[in-house]
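Supplementary Methods, section 5.1.

A reviewer requested that the exact input to the structure prediction be made available. We therefore reproduce it here, unchanged from the version used in the analyses.
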Amino acid sequence: MNDTEFNQLADQALNTIEEMVDDSGADMDYETHGNVMTLEMDNRSQIIINKQEPMHEIWLASKSGGYHFSYQNEQWICSRSGRELLALVREECDKQSDEDIEWT
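The structure derived from this sequence is encoded token-by-token as follows.
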């Protein structure tokens, strides 16, 4: 994968996360600056997601720890847990928001 392909795939993933948050109706805000997306819960807890272009990875930092995702078989998969990025984002948002989020 070259840098252009990585950026296209990573941007698609970040856009999908934005849509997930919008569609959920959760008390959560998101903001993207450059390669970094911040999800902020109503309780001020944050999840940070950023693109790591040199490694062609997406990194996620939450209260549960840090996760590194690489693109495998058309999915972003965590090198540590084997979990898929979007599933882990949902799980971490549920944990940190202290609310039952209705993901669509």
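The chain has one domain: 3-96. These observations are discussed further in the main text.
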